[in-house]
Structure formats: C-alpha cells, structure tokens
C-alpha cells in the first residue's frame, strides 16, 4: 500500500492541461481560460453621466444654492445612445440622462432633484465640483488592459466583464472527455427490471455527474459483465477519451476482473493499493493510449476516491491547480474520535457553524462504505492521518469540503 499523497503525485504526474479551443462567450461559463482576456475597448468609451440631470460647467454654478439658484440657458439634450453634438459654453446647460455622453465643454452633472427647468432655461440649486457625477472614459478599464488571467475558471461575473470588454469569443482549455464503465453481473441500470440478486448501479451515474460538475464531458459506456472479454470489449469504447474511469472489479475477488484485463494487455499499474479508508482498491495505469483510473465498487468508496483523485485530474486537464482551495479546510471536531490505524481515514461528516463563525465537523455514527444515504448528506470528509492519536471533541482537524464545481457566481 502507498500513501494517499504518493498516489496523488503518481497519478497527477500523468496529466497536463489539454489544448485550447475557441468558444463563444455564452458558452464559456465554467470553462478555464487558456489565454488571458484583454479589453478590446475602453470602458466607458466616453465621459458618461452617472445621474439624470444637467451637464454644466462647474465654474458657472460655483455659488448656487437652493435659495439662490443660478440660471443657465438650456441648449439641448444628451441621452444614452444619442449624444449632444454641440459643446457647452459659458452660461449653458444640456439636459442629460444616466449613461449618456457628457458633452464637450461641460465638466459636471447636477442631479435633476437639485434643478428646475422650463423650455428655455434651467435653475441650478446646488454648486458641484468639476467631475461630479461624471464617469470619465476608461474609468472602468482602458483598451488593452488584461481583464481576466490565463488559468481562470470563468464565473458569471467574468462573462459579464468579458462582454463589457467587447470580447465575443475566447480561448479555453478543451473539456476533458471521460469514459465511465461500471462492472459487475449484479449491476443493472436504474429503471431496469432487477433479477433476484441484482442491485441498481449508483456509481456510474454519480461519476458522470461529478465529471459534469468539474467541467468535463462524461461518456457512460454502460455495464461490463464479470468476464474478461466483456470488460475488455466495453473498455475499448474509451478510445479517444482523455481518461477511462472504471468502478468495481478492483479488489482481490475471483470476479474482480479489471486488474486481470489490464494485466492481460500488458498494462503496468502505477498505483494499485492505497492506504486509505474508504478506497483502498484504487488502480491507476494506462489502457492503450488512454489513462485508466480504476475505482473500488463500494459506492461511497467510489465517491470519495473520485473526489480525491478524479477531481484533481479533471482540474489539471483544464489548466487549474489540482486543489480548488475554496471553502474551509479545517474544522473543530463535533465528537471524539478513536486513534487511527495505518490507513488514512476520510470520515463522512456534517458541518455546522457556531456563534463564533468557526465550523464544526460532526462524523456520522455509521461509516460503512456502502451507505449512500449518509454520503449524500455529508458536507465534508474529516481527514485522519495514519496512526493519528485519539482526538477529543473540539480538536482542530483537516477537512475536505464536498462542495464546489464548475459553475460559480
Ligand atoms: N478479500 C478482500 N476483499 C475485499 C477487499 C480486500 O482488500 N480484500 N477490499 C474491500 C473493499 S475495502 C472494497 S471498497 C471492495 C472493492 O471491491 P471492488 O472494487 O472489486 O468492487 P466489487 O467487488 O465489484 O463491488 C464491491 C461492492 O460494490 C457494489 N458495486 C459495484 N459496482 C457498483 C455500482 N456501479 N453501483 C452500485 N454498487 C456497486 C457491489 O455490488 C459490491 O457490493 O472490496 C472489498 N473486498
Ligand atoms: O475501498 Mo473499501 O473502500 O475501504 O470500502
């Protein structure tokens, strides 16, 4: 058995960022930039009014108050999308609306609440400094400014920013293509009629969904039967994918065939047994040209090992660092834990936040790797190092949050 850290290092050494492709901005949410996004225009492109009111020369109204307003001659109007073409001279004002270009000659905007107007003139009831309620050209960013760096996973806000920079398409890493293969004579698809000793496959659909949350495209290859030929034939469907993930058939039993199939094909496994619980039976190697990650069949083992090994692979393939660094990584224990043995434990737990704002992770009583109902409820995994001594309630522990994904505000 090797440690989790060594297994991760060996597995991730086999992956690098996928090539770039160009996508239209509406399709870029959750994708990772292969090139920085640079502004193609200056924003705002002109000096723009920040309020509805009157564009004036500040010097003209220096002494204006509500009791002693200053009268200016109104000479036109500037609306958003319809600039005033003339220029504002001494003693003149232009009616202006939010977002409209401030005419040349004017250097400030007075809110309409401080003014009263008739057809020919306007009374300005407040003095303002030059620049008041004017957003100068380039106030947000100038043309040529880097708006978003290479390697950024695009959020909803980033899409709006790129649109503001007049960038209609951008360069992102190709989505990882991941083939998913379930194995086992006992496995049936949800909705299929079940034989007397059959169970429904949870793992493949869960893995496909996890791939989607991480920005990849999953190809569900179906269910291989417990024969070498069936596993080999169905695994061949992964040709052209960036990764084949199998579930089940990874342990030592007479019908655990994924290993045999790999061995038959001369596949050397870089990883085949990891000192962790759940998930000891993880394999990593290469099936032909396609890297293969073999995950154990117990559903929670599949889920936990996918979080620990598949998620970072998908991130690296998209040009991201292996870990997201999001969310809390430490919490206080809600209940005491016994000393650990030689396997690193990933304990399913809930997270609550106390009055002091510090999260508390409370393990479920039952930790069997077949209990999917509790895994779905878990907020995090508590990480217990091999041989960790007993820990009291309140002790600070490392956690892996079970949250995050490709879509972000
Ligand atoms: N003698 C030993 N037996 C086992 C060991 C061991 O080290 N020595 N390890 C145990 C551990 S830990 C795990 S985890 C499992 C891993 O076994 P496999 O990866 O070979 O998985 P299977 O035997 O095929 O299945 C295990 C379990 O999971 C169910 N399963 C499988 N696929 C699915 C699926 N797609 N959806 C839902 N459930 C699935 C399967 O029916 C079994 O109940 O081995 C232990 N045994
Ligand atoms: O891999 Mo097993 O995961 O310890 O149930």
Largest sheet, in brief, is: 6 strands, mixed
Helicity level, as a percent range? 10-25%
Number of strands: 25
Give the N-to-C terminal Cα separation. 41 Å
Strand content: 25-35%
- At CATH's second level, what is the architecture of the largest domain? 3-Layer(aba) Sandwich
Bound molecules: ligand LQZAQKY5, molybdate ion
Flag low-confidence runs. none
Overview of the structural elements:
There is one protein chain. The protein is an alpha/beta fold and 409 residues long. The chain has four domains: 4-17 and 175-317, MoaB/Mog-like domain (Molybdenum Cofactor Biosythetic Enzyme, Chain A), CATH 3.40.980.10; 21-41 and 142-173, Molybdopterin biosynthesis moea protein, domain 2; 48-135, Molybdopterin biosynthesis moeA protein, domain 3; 330-401, Beta-clip, CATH 2.40.340.10. The chain is built from seven helices and 25 strands. The protein has helices at residues 4-12, 156-164, 203-213, 228-235, 258-264, 299-317, 372-377, and strands at residues 20-24, 37-38, 48-49, 53-56, 70-78, 92-96, 108-111, 115-117, 121-124, 134-135, 146-148, 169-173, 177-183, 187-188, 199-200, 217-224, 243-247, 276-277, 283-287, 290-295, 330-333, 344-353, 359-363, 380-384, 396-401. Strands 7-4-6-5-9-8 form a six-stranded mixed β-sheet, with no helix packed on it. Strands 16-13-17-20-19 form a five-stranded mixed β-sheet, with helices on both faces. Strand 19 and strand 20 (290-295) form a beta hairpin. The longest helix is centred in the C-terminal third of the chain and has 19 residues, at 299-317. Ligand LQZAQKY5 is lined by residues 182, 184, 186-187, 199, 201-204, 247-253, 256, 278, 280-281, 296-299, 301, 369.
């Amino acid at each position: 058995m090797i440690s989790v850290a060594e297994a991760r290092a060996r597995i991730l050494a086999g992956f690098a960022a996928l090539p770039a492709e160009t996508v239209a901005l509406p399709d870029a949410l959750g994708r990772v930039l292969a090139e920085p996004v640079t502004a193609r225009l200056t924003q705002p492109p002109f000096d723009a009014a920040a309020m509805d009111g009157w564009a004036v020369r500040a010097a003209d109204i220096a002494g204006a108050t509500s009791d002693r307003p200053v009268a200016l001659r109104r000479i036109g109007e500037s609306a958003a999308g319809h600039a005033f073409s003339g220029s504002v001279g001494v003693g003149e004002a232009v009616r202006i609306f939010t977002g409209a270009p401030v005419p040349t000659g004017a250097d400030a905007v007075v809110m309409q609440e401080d003014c009263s107007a008739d057809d020919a003139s306007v009374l300005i009831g407040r003095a303002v400094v030059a620049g008041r309620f004017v957003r100068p050209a380039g106030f947000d960013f100038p043309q040529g400014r880097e708006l978003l760096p290479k390697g950024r996973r695009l959020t909803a806000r980033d899409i709006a920013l790129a649109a503001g920079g007049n960038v209609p398409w951008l360069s992102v890493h190709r989505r990882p293509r991941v083939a998913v293969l379930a194995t086992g004579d006992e496995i049936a698809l949800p909705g299929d009629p079940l034989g007397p000793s059959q169970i429904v496959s949870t793992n493949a659909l869960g893995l496909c969904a996890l791939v989607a949350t991480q920005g990849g495209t999953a190809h569900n290859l179906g269910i291989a039967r417990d024969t070498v030929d069936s596993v080999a034939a169905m695994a061949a469907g992964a040709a052209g994918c960036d990764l084949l993930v199998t579930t089940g058939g990874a342990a030592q039993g007479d019908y655990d065939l994924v290993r045999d199939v790999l061995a038959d094909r001369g596949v050397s496994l870089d990883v085949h047994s990891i000192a962790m619980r759940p998930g000891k039976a993880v394999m990593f190697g290469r099936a032909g040209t396609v890297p293969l990650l073999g995950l154990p069949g117990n559903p929670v083992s599949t889920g936990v090992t996918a979080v620990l090994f598949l998620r970072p692979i998908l991130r690296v393939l998209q040009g991201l660092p292996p870990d997201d660094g999001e969310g809390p990584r430490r919490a206080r224990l809600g209940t005491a834990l016994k000393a650990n043995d030689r396997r690193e434990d990933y304990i399913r737990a809930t997270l609550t936040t106390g009055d002091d704002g510090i999260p508390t992770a409370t393990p479920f009583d039952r930790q069997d790797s077949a209990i999917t109902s509790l895994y779905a409820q878990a907020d995090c995994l508590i990480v217990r190092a091999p041989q960790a001594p007993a820990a009291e309630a309140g002790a600070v522990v490392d956690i892996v949050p079970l949250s995050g994904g490709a879509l972000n505000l």
